UniProtKB/TrEMBL annotation:
<feature type="domain" description="Rieske">
    <location>
        <begin position="6"/>
        <end position="105"/>
    </location>
</feature>
<keyword id="KW-0001">2Fe-2S</keyword>
<keyword id="KW-0408">Iron</keyword>
<dbReference type="InterPro" id="IPR036922">
    <property type="entry name" value="Rieske_2Fe-2S_sf"/>
</dbReference>
<dbReference type="Pfam" id="PF00355">
    <property type="entry name" value="Rieske"/>
</dbReference>
<protein>
    <submittedName>
        <fullName>Non-heme iron oxygenase ferredoxin subunit</fullName>
    </submittedName>
</protein>
<keyword id="KW-0411">Iron-sulfur</keyword>
<dbReference type="GO" id="GO:0051537">
    <property type="term" value="F:2 iron, 2 sulfur cluster binding"/>
</dbReference>
<dbReference type="InterPro" id="IPR017941">
    <property type="entry name" value="Rieske_2Fe-2S"/>
</dbReference>
<keyword id="KW-0479">Metal-binding</keyword>
<dbReference type="GO" id="GO:0046872">
    <property type="term" value="F:metal ion binding"/>
</dbReference>
Length: 110
């Protein structure tokens, strides 16, 4: 588990409807951070169906979901739940915070 927070971007560089990808250097985990109507959410940047980055997909702000471009699996950005086949397992969700005019996240898994 990483206790070190990873810098994502300046707070004003992640506007509602946008997403940013980062890499947790401590755990080697790719993370994607979403701004959904001003609230921030972070998921592992990997589809649970087939190892492919979610950030390449479309962020649907009206549904609050991200769609994997590979096979169309969709995940709720708020909690990582798989919304349709071919994905059945949720995408891991990570903490995200605003601090010192910046956005931060970390892989908090044991």
């Amino acid at each position: 588990m990483s206790h070190a927070w990873t810098f994502v971007c300046a707070s004003d560089a992640l506007l509602p409807g946008e997403m940013k990808s980062v890499f947790d250097e401590v755990t080697g985990t790719p993370i994607v951070v979403f701004n959904l109507d001003g609230d921030l959410y972070a998921l592992e940047d990997q589809c649970t169906h087939e190892e492919f980055e979610l950030s390449a997909g479309e962020f649907n702000t009206s549904e609050g979901s991200i769609e994997c471009v590979l096979h169309g699996a969709r995940f709720d950005v708020r909690d990582g739940q798989a919304l349709c086949a071919p994905a059945y397992s949720p995408a891991p969700k990570f903490p995200v915070k605003r601090e010192h005019d910046a956005v931060w996240t970390r892989d908090d898994r044991d």
